[in-house]
Design brief:
The chain has one domain: Sandwich (Jelly Rolls). 8% of the residues lie in helices and 28% in strands. It has one helix and 15 strands. The strands form three sheets. Strands 1, 3, 4, 6, 9, 12, 13 and 15 form an eight-stranded antiparallel sheet that branches. Strands 2-5-14-7-8 form a five-stranded antiparallel sheet, with no helix packed on it. A two-stranded antiparallel sheet has the order 10-11. The structure holds magnesium ion (MG).
Length: 276
């Protein structure tokens, strides 16, 4: 009896210690204070898939061409009307890390997007600090506000799997790691279904993303839980239509490049009348 008593006592003390350490993370107002690491998962790792031959898909006739290699006329500094200050050379735009994120002047709701990016062949760094950029499928404000499809070099570079290339940042682990070697051009093809909101700002229907990375399906009609955030839980904030944004990430690695960016507005499919 005595030993059971002490065991119970010890368990109680341990429980108190655990509860005590957890309570350190609870702010005084009772709201949990998250750390970035709490939303970073390193397993399970998606299988490595070697993509087929690289192909450049030039824009179809009804596409909105967002970058054709000539200039940044379609782009502004995110959250402003100022001209984008990334560099354009040899038909390619390169991230200017000091120039900040850039976004399209045009706004989109549901769309199909194609873009190509290249990690420099001499890239250095590890985990999130190696060719980090991103495509915000809807930019809902300055900085990193919105819904980020991650761009990163994960060719032999590990990071948390919900933050690797092909992930919807901190929400969706890609179905495969189809990364090409640094120095090679890679492609994203995305189908974005924007979230819908009620007049009071509450969510009517969530956002969905389907993503092909180098022709390999990595996100299959993934239902988003809200905007992608570095710390804490995703949440939705009402918007109608939004620019598409590219990230100038602050990591120390060499800046990446983009080319051949176009989008097509998507309308609901016409419905065939029911046969009688
Ligand atoms: Mg990023």
């Amino acid at each position: 009896m005595k030993s059971l008593y002490f065991k119970t006592l010890r368990f109680g003390v341990l429980s108190l210690l655990v509860a005590g350490s957890t309570s350190l993370l609870i702010a005084q107002n009772g709201v949990k204070k998250w750390t970035a690491e709490e939303t970073e998962f390193w397993k399970p790792e998606p299988p490595v898939v070697t993509p087929g031959n690289a192909a450049t898909d030039s824009a179809p006739s009804d596409a909105v061409v967002l970058f054709d290699g000539k200039d940044l006329d379609q782009w502004v500094v995110a959250g402003t009307q100022k001209p984008a200050e990334w560099t354009v050379q040899d038909g390619v735009m390169k991230v200017n890390k000091k120039g900040g994120n850039i976004e399209t002047k045009r706004r989109f709701k549901d769309y199909q997007l194609h873009l190509e990016f290249r990690i420099p062949a001499d890239i250095e760094g590890s985990s999130q600090g190696r060719g980090n950029s991103g495509v915000f499928l809807a930019s809902t404000g300055g900085g990193d506000a919105g819904y980020e499809l991650q761009v990163l070099d994960n060719y032999n570079n590990k990071t948390y799997v919900n933050g690797m290339v092909g992930s919807i940042y901190k929400q969706a682990i890609p179905l495969a790691n189809a990364a090409r070697k640094p120095g090679e051009w890679q492609s994203y093809d995305v189908i974005w279904t924007a979230p819908r909101f009620n007049d009071d700002g509450s969510l009517k229907s969530p956002a969905y993303a389907t993503v092909f990375f180098n022709g390999v399906l990595v996100e299959n009609h993934f239902q988003l839980r809200g905007e992608t955030v570095y710390i804490g839980k995703p949440r939705y904030r009402k918007y109608e239509d939004a620019p598409i944004k590219l990230q100038a990430h602050g990591d120390k690695s060499e800046p990446i490049s983009f080319r051949n960016i176009w989008a097509r507005d998507l309308k609901p499919a016409a419905v065939v009348p029911e046969a009688r």
